[in-house]
Amino acid sequence: MNIDKLFKVPALPSSSNKRKFGDLPSAEELKRFKPAEEEPTASNLAKGKQRATVEDYDEDEENQDPYGTGLIEDFGDEDDEGRMFGGGLNEDQRTILDMFDRAGDDEDDEPTVVTLPTLRKQLVQFERTVKKNQEMRVKFPDEPEKFIDSESNLDTALHALTATLPQNPKLFYPELVKQGTVKVLSELLSHENADIALDVVQVLQELTEEDVEAPDDDGDDDDGEEDDAQVTSGMRVLIDALLEVDIFQLLIENLGRLNEKEDTDRQGVFQTLGIFENLLSFNPTLAETLVNSTTALKWLLSRITVEEYDSNKQYASEVLAILLQQSRSNRLKLGELEGIDALLRVLARYRKSDPSDPEEEEFMENSFDALCSALAEPELKQLFLEAEGVELMVICMKEKKLARARSIKVLDHALSGSEGSDNCERFVENLGLKTLFAAFMGKGSKKSHVSAEDNEHILGILVSLFTNLASESQSRMRLLAKFIEGDYEKVDRLLELREEAEGRLTVVEREIEKEKQSTYNAGQEVDVEDEVMFYLRRLEGGLFTLQNIDYILAWLIMEDDGAKDQAKLLLSRKDQTFQEIVDVLQEQSDNVGDLTPDGKLDPKAESQKIILDALMNYLKGSM
Which segments of the protein form a coiled coil according to its record (predicted)? Predict the structure, then answer.
């Protein structure tokens, strides 16, 4: 509880920013008060932890304490001066002392096990605590000292939920929904005291964590999968209930009243982002719900463009990247909100300097990933061009900082497809070829810095350039000239990478053959689905790289006689001919695109197939 906010007192020094309850009265102050009669202290009432074994519940037992904290008070017999009896300590202070007392005396006791009846009592008492706080605030709106105790009790009750509910999600989460507590929690997100709203955020963040597990009652792992399924079912019930109360909108509205200069508010923002991540991890389709029903995307873009760096900025970039991964509508919405320009402004900071620590490096990675996801949409490639994204990425490539490899990846996405043709032209115009081939040849840096992933993206860019640059154009001539210079050293490099890819692919194909043989030995057949999976494994194991290399080689062989002779010479040293290239391209052609319902290829796949067939025909005639 932030008592300072309630009483409007000046802020404490920075070394004491953490919100605390009031200090305990001194011994001299206590001497001024003499209790009318001795009351039992919270410590005496709650000595020793008890194992919860309640099986029946009588709703009339209002003085029962489901939290085990000693905080339940009899509101009906409230005394105006009651806080001064019992030693001058209020209930919360007695609870704190009681916690220390029990911690020292009961270290060897068994942990409390909460049963379903106990949980029901706790939820009922929680709602009463909420109601009491509402009543006191309505009754004394301008007298915080009159409702501070009820607010303190509410704060304690909320924290108690985080200790109880995650113990048994499969059983407790459905009960939480059944009792209507989810709706109560959602309403508390709009509580006048922001600290109470932040308590709710903490509760929701902990309840939706991925690592909540079913309790292991007997240590038997045989039923582990069944328990996990039940936990998932309980989580689904909870999330469905949260969606019914429009939890996304409530959380976004709550973000609007938080001041991240305050430690607790900053933590609240972090936990809110955690809730978003938890829900999206459980159900990725909620990404569109979050973007379509709230201003979350706008808020995230605003948050990542803040100059100062902190953990919340990093977390915002992570959630943004998640939202853009699998949703075309979210990516288009990003374009409408000028998100491409925002991401480029963020990344421009890393063209000449590296992130200061691993966390900021992750922020940079997330921002690059978000941009790559956005460039999957043809409409956004044009926005990238207009925002001078190609120019920025070329600069990042030249500077050889950490952003270099990521900029190559972005360009691979931006230049791909027919919609990337203008970006290909812009890339050549801005002298991108020189920087690209320097990275391709490992010049200007240690070769180890050019990773296999970097090579994949460099090859992807070259594939796009050969596909999109117009025949006989100046840009295409400049591309071919790069392969001719240096005594065809770049053709040599292509054949070197080809040999490496073949080696990796051979290992994978041997593994697949062993699996197929095991299947046949078991009297089973390899079906179509198995063949598809085997093909995907081969692509990942080196075939995709081999296809890109042979596509580039085929264009070079067809367009330059010197490149053709060099390639033929190097292949012959490995007892290979152009037929090996034809075989690779033929398999690629056979697997291009998916058939439409009427049995035809889509236009893009059809165009690619035509190009592959033309290249293969030329190679066959050149053997």
Answer: 491-518
